Amino acid sequence: MSSPSGLLVLEGSTPQPPLVFSGKLFGAPVTAGGLLQAMKGKNAETRDKGYGEVVFNTCMTGYQEVLTDPSYYGQMVVMTAPHIGNTGVNSEDVESGRPWASGLVVHANCFESSNWRSGGELDAYLKKHRIPAIHGVDTRALTVALRSQGVVRGIILPAEGRARVEELLKLLPSFEGRDLLREVTTREAYSWKGDGESFLAPKAVKGKRAFKVVAVDYGVKWNLLRSLAARGCELEVVPADTPAADILKRKPDGVFLSNGPGDPAAATYAVEAVRGVLGKVPVFGVCMGHQILSLALGGKTYKLKFGHHGGNQPVLDKRTGKVEISSQNHGYAVDPHSLPKEVEVTHVNLNDRTVEGLSAPHLRAFSVQYHPEASPGPQDSDYLFDQFIARMEERAAP
After folding, report:
1. Which of 121, 287, 309, 356 is an active site residue?
2. How far is residue 254's CA from residue 367's CA, in Å, rounded to a whole number?
3. Is the CATH code 1.10.630.10 the one for domain 5-171?
4. Three-class SS state of 246
5. Which of 95, 223, 252, 267 is a Cys-bridge partner for 373, taking CB atoms 3.0 to 4.6 Å apart?
């Protein structure tokens, strides 16, 4: 299939010039003029699309789950697996109501899918949601550059727009320190009724009783909610800026803190809310929720060089000695030296020794940096949902 020539341009750092990768455009049409309008906030439909932080994801499958994960808001995703689009898209493999990634970069896109579950092509799906993409890129060289240089911002544009690269790079908005949670969270509280059932949805587990859980939506993935609902939880999802008093007024048996995009330190209101519920009900945090919990406990976070994005991150459970292969998507980590002495680091990443889990037993609070619900990725860590149920059972026991 013939596609117009395009460029992926990564911002340079003095004295290094911008890095340019050539390829072919697909997905939503993009122009240099359109990018300028979006960066200036003059087109809400294309805002934060076609430009953003460039990150690489090592998942072999699951590109639709990746695109629809709200944690990717403000980021353009490079898939390291060489062939993308082979299985098309469908209405089941989604993790939210729409794609959130700012752009997609692949080595080879399959324009004609072959899968019994396919309901359409990736190209048309990206066009529908106004997400620019580029294929034919040397993603191996690009990944090496990102690992060496760290997370940088980039833009996708037509080859004829090369003369305007410098102008575009100067206008690139920064995502560091920006509160992205308010941009992806639900606007109103709602009860989870199993919307968006998945072909790979967790099988229902019969429990002793149904626990009421308030899930704070920092950009929640649906399979997190499915995983809790499968264990008999009655879920009420609330906006990210819901105060502690409003959370506790709902009389939950436990509070779940979801995943989400961006810098946790920018969401001071979320930290204050979590601090207000600690010790009153069990708390379980995942990804952004893990970072928010650590800040509420008195810890600090910092930005990783290139983050963890993919489905093959090895994590050691320090208490059992077992290693889990985990699904991850985050750009920040918790500083272990900043945590109070009563907070235990329970899990560490075996690649870079970063904190992957913590526990505050005196508060019945715990969290992990990775995704126990997978989608996409391995399911080694789904036992963590059972641990949350156990915390609520302990609290309910006479």
Report:
1. 287
2. 13
3. no
4. helix
5. 223
